Amino acid sequence: MQKTTPLKELKVLRYQIPAYKLIPNTSIQHKPLLIYKNAFPNPTASGIERALCDAGAVTPQWRYTMYGTSHFHSTAHEVLGVAAGKATICFGHEDNPEKVVCELDKGDLAVVPAGVAHRLMEVRERGFEMVGAYPEGCAWDMCYGAPGEEGRVGGIARLKWFVRDPIYGGEGPVLDS
User: Fold this and answer.
1) Are 34 and 113 in contact (CB under 8 A)?
2) Helices and strands, number each (H, E), in the chain
3) Residue 54 CB partners (closer than 8 Å, separation 6+)
4) Distance of alpha carbon 147 from its chain centroid, rounded?
5) What's the pTM?
6) Residue pair 13/89 in contact by the 8 Å Cβ criterion
7) Could you tell me the CA-to-CA distances from 75 to 64, 85, 114, 142, 143 in Å, in that order?
8) Which of 11, 41, 109, 125 could form a disulfide with 85 if both were Cys (CB 3.0 to 4.6 A apart)?
9) pLDDT means per 10 residues in the chain (177 residues)?
10) d(CA 148, CA 62)
11) Bridge partners of 64?
């Protein structure tokens, strides 16, 4: 069973990122980008997948690094658990003066609201791998803030926010947002 940091000891970073050009970031639902630091001490990819499934908020769908191109999802909120390595990630688009650039380390978890652009800037430790998960029944898409995506972006307002925390279930930071 994957060990998680006790909720009372968890450090959580919260960011509101304004829209940038055709990228909505957190401007539609006003739900913050959340980063749970060291949520999983000594994680494994399979352990993170089990913990996410056990909490009942999301379904793991892939193991991978992160795309090096800014992109966002209009059909699903995304949960990213870092299973191995360390990387610098940009949230909000690299040209956005109000972007958030941070290091995600092994054991961190990011809750990325639909519409928030994100990309890999630099792998800081070899073997960087994440588990990507989405709310049950949501099929994720890829948007880049390009002309013609406005109709897809409009759907973000209708997405439901989490009713359970991706790690802690019936309580946790995502429910306080």
Assistant:
1) no
2) 2, 7
3) 169
4) 24
5) 0.97
6) no
7) 20, 28, 7, 9, 10
8) 125
9) 94 98 97 98 97 97 96 98 98 98 98 98 96 95 96 96 97 95
10) 28
11) 130
Residue 115 is encoded by which pair of tokens? 């519409």
How far CA 154 is from CA of 58, 88, 145, in Å, comes to 23, 29, 12
* Residue 1: predicted pLDDT: 78
- Give the pair of three-digit tokens for residue 145: 């803030």
Q: Is residue 86 within 8 Å of 105, Cβ to Cβ?
A: yes
Q: Which helix (H) or strand (E) holds 50?
A: helix 45-55
If phi > 0 it is left, if psi is from -120 to 50 it is alpha, else beta; for residue 39 that is alpha
Residue type at position 21: K
| Cα 141 → chain centroid | 14
